[in-house]
């Protein structure tokens, strides 16, 4: 179990929480230095997620004879139930408490497309987003899963090149030519999945080993690059530093092993990602009606998100995923590795 990846995944989820706090309560117009840092840089949590996704999907299939169909069923079983639940919960809240989501509009067709992970213009008029806004990243995830499923038809050593070719075909050729989902997939962020696959290949071959000073230096360099930024495509500005963070944490794995707390934080990170915007919207709604300062209600939002994510992981994610996994007869190896240090 790569506890280092779990820890980084948890950190990424809470960085995104901080980013959306500044959006929901302040529309990114913040002057506190720490709040400004989250507003300006907090979106990088998504890039870290994408790199980690490439890594764990490679490791999930490296030592398993999975068919493309089995792989897709496993991924759907892991991702879809919780996302469907919170998407439908938001639909209910929009219907019953519309003032909680003043920019949201319900349209049956859009809700169905959201549940099917198909990008579509949000009826609220603010771009190509599903009903549960945070789900835009899952549309990219599902595309990656489909393409990786095709790559399972070739040998492990060729999968990186097959996925790279398919991503280029879909995102750089077909998407702009056919104007797929208003060009949604024509985004260099997809390259971050490939970065994760490369890290998975290096780890599988035993090359992610070094004295602690080297990965710690890598983390420092990555954080400095994130802080200063650059006028370059996102895959370079945030994707490369994210990849450096991931490979540095993987290299530090011996120092993370055995931490149950970090493992649990990582386990709950997906639910944190799904529910935090709902909690923040509810927090803003309560704060506005009771004249509560946003920074006063922030700790309440953090606690509710953390507790809600734990319950969600235990009673929603595990309750649906594990029975489906047993029914499929395939062990989940998304963050499992047999490499010994």
From TrEMBL:
This is Acyltransferase. Keywords: Acyltransferase, Membrane, Transferase, Transmembrane, Transmembrane helix. GO terms for molecular function: acyltransferase activity. Residues 4-311 form the Acyltransferase domain. The keyword Protein biosynthesis does not apply. The chain crosses the membrane at residues 42-62, 83-101, 134-153, 160-178, 184-203, 212-230, 236-256, 268-285, 297-316. It holds the Pfam family Acyl_transf_3. InterPro entries: Acyl_transf_3_dom, Acyltransferase_3. Coiled coil: none annotated.
């Amino acid at each position: 179990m790569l506890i280092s990846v779990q820890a980084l995944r948890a950190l990424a989820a809470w960085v995104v929480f901080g980013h959306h706090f500044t959006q929901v309560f302040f529309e990114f117009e913040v002057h506190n230095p720490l709040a400004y840092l989250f507003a300006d840089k907090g979106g990088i949590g998504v890039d870290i997620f994408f790199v980690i996704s490439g890594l764990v999907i490679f490791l999930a299939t490296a030592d398993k004879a999975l068919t493309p169909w089995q792989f897709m069923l496993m991924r759907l079983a892991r991702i879809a139930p919780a996302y469907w639940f919170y998407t439908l919960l938001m639909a209910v809240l929009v219907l019953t408490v519309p003032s909680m989501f003043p920019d949201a509009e319900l349209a049956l067709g859009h809700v169905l497309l959201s549940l099917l992970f198909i990008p579509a213009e949000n009826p609220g008029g603010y771009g190509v987003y599903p009903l549960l806004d945070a789900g835009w990243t899952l549309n990219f995830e599902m595309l990656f899963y489909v393409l990786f499923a095709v790559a399972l038809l070739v040998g492990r050593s060729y999968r990186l090149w097959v996925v790279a070719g398919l991503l280029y075909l879909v995102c750089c050729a077909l998407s702009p030519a056919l104007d797929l989902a208003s060009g949604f997939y024509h985004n260099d962020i997809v390259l971050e999945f490939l970065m994760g696959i490369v890290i998975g290949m290096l780890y599988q071959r035993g090359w992610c080993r070094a004295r602690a000073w080297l990965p710690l230096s890598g983390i420092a360099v990555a954080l400095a690059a994130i802080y200063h930024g650059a006028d370059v495509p996102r895959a370079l500005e945030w994707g490369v530093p994210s990849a450096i963070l991931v490979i540095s944490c993987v290299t530090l794995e011996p120092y993370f092993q055995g931490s149950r707390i970090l493992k649990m934080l990582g386990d709950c990170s997906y639910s944190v990602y799904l529910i935090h915007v709902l909690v923040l919207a509810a927090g803003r709604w309560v704060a506005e009606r009771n004249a509560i300062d946003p920074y006063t209600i922030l700790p309440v939002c953090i606690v509710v998100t953390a507790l809600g994510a734990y319950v969600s992981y235990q009673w929603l994610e595990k309750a649906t995923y594990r029975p489906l996994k047993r029914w499929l007869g395939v062990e989940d190896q998304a963050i499992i590795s047999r490499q010994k240090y």
